[in-house]
Design a protein that fits this description.
globular, 10 helices, six-stranded parallel β-sheet, alpha/beta, 278 residues
C-alpha cells in the first residue's frame, strides 16, 4: 500500500485525509492518506526517512518554508512563492510544489467568476497563503496588489518579491484609518489572515467599506461563514470561503502524486461531513 499524508505542527484539525482517502477509494487506488505530527526539531529526520516510507505529502504550518531545503528540485511556482505545500517522490527524488495558488485561482473563477486581468486587489495577511495567492494573481495579470499585514515587515518582504517578478505591489502596515479608501479603490478583497476563525475576533475592516463592486475571497473555511463573510452576504456581494481553494489545491496534489485525474465531485462531497467532525 502506498502511503501519503500531511505533515504539520499541530495537525489535529484537517479535512485532507477525508478528501484524499475518498478519492483513492473511488479510483480503487491501494493507498492511504495519514496525518503526521512533526515538530520543527523532527523535520530533518522526517525527510531523511521519507523515501523509505512515503510516496508523497502535503505540508502545512509551520513547515511550508523550512521544508524547501530538503527538496531535490522545486517545480511550478514553488520557487518564486518561497513555500511548498506538496512533495512528490519521483525517481527517488523529492520534488516540491506549491498547489495553493492553483487552488485559489480555480476557486476564484468558479466561486466568484472573477477575472484578475486589469483589476485591483487588496490582500490582508502577507504569510504563506498570501504569497501563493498573490503570485497566482500576478500570473493572471492583476493590475495592482495592496498587501496589508499587522507585521509591516512581512508585507514589505512579499511586495518586494512581487515587484521583482513585475507586479505593481504596495505594502502597508495594518491601520484601520487608511485601509477604507484602499478597499474602495479595489475590486477584490482577500482575507489571508486567521482573523475570523475564532468567535470574538476583531472585525477585519469596518463593513461600511464593503462596496458593491467588491468581490470577497475569505481563505477561512472553518467556520464556513466568518464575520466578514456574513457582512458581505448581507450586502449581496459576491463572496466565497476557503473550501473551494482547499478542494482544488488537494485535487492538484492528488494528480501530481497519482498521475490520474482527481475525482473532484467525490472529494468535494467528502468535505462537509469531515468538517462536522472537526
Ligand atoms: P500566516 O503565515 O500566519 O500568515 C497570516 C498573516 O496575517 C500573519 O503575518 C499575521 O500576522 C497576519 N495577520 C493576522 N491578523 C491580521 C489582521 N487583522 N490584519 C492584517 N494582518 C493580519 O498564515 P497562512 O498560512 O498564510 O494562513 C492564513 C489563513 O489562510 C489562515 O486562516 C489559514 O487557515 C488560511 N488558509 C487557507 C487555505 C485554504 O486552502 N483555504 C490554505 C492556506 C491557508 P501575525 O503573525 O503577526 O499574527
Amino acid at each position: 500500500m502506498k502511503i501519503y499524508g500531511l505533515i504539520g505542527y499541530p495537525v489535529r484539525h484537517s479535512l485532507s485525509p477525508a478528501m484524499q482517502n475518498a478519492a483513492f477509494k473511488h479510483l480503487g487506488i491501494d493507498a492511504e492518506y495519514r496525518l503526521f505530527q512533526v515538530t520543527p526539531d523532527e523535520l530533518e529526520e522526517f525527510f531523511f526517512n521519507f523515501k523509505k516510507k512515503l510516496c508523497g505529502i502535503n505540508i502545512t504550518i509551520p513547515h511550508k518554508e523550512s521544508s524547501i531545503k530538503y527538496m531535490d528540485e522545486l517545480r511550478g511556482e514553488a520557487k518564486e512563492i518561497g513555500a511548498i505545500n506538496t512533495v512528490v517522490l519521483e525517481d527517488n527524488r523529492l520534488i516540491g510544489y506549491n498547489t495553493d495558488g492553483v487552488g485559489f485561482l480555480r476557486s476564484l473563477k468558479e466561486g466568484l467568476d472573477f477575472r484578475p486581468a486589469s483589476k485591483k486587489a487588496i490582500i490582508f495577511g502577507a504569510g504563506g497563503a498570501s504569497r501563493a495567492v498573490s503570485f497566482g494573481l500576478l500570473r493572471e495579470k492583476i493590475e495592482r496588489i495592496i498587501l496589508v499585514d499587522i507585521d509591516g515587515e512581512k508585507a514589505i518582504s512579499l511586495a518586494s518579491d512581487l515587484k521583482k517578478a513585475g507586479c505593481n505591489a504596495i505594502a502597508l502596515e495594518y491601520d484601520k484609518r487608511i485601509i477604507g479608501n484602499l478597499v474602495l479603490d479595489s475590486e477584490l478583497l482577500v482575507n489571508a489572515t486567521p482573523c475570523g476563525m475564532k468567535e470574538g475576533d476583531p472585525e477585519l475592516l469596518p463593513s461600511k467599506f464593503l462596496h458593491e463592486r467588491l468581490s470577497i475571497f475569505d481563505l477561512i473555511y472553518n467556520p464556513k461563514e466568518t464575520r466578514l463573510f456574513k457582512e458581505a452576504k448581507k450586502r449581496n456581494l459576491k463572496v466565497v470561503n476557503g473550501m473551494g481553494m482547499l478542494l482544488y489545491q488537494g485535487a492538484e496534489a492528488f494528480e501530481l502524486w497519482t498521475g490520474q485525474k482527481a475525482p473532484i465531485e467525490v472529494m468535494r462531497k467528502a468535505l462537509p461531513d469531515a468538517l462536522k467532525k472537526l
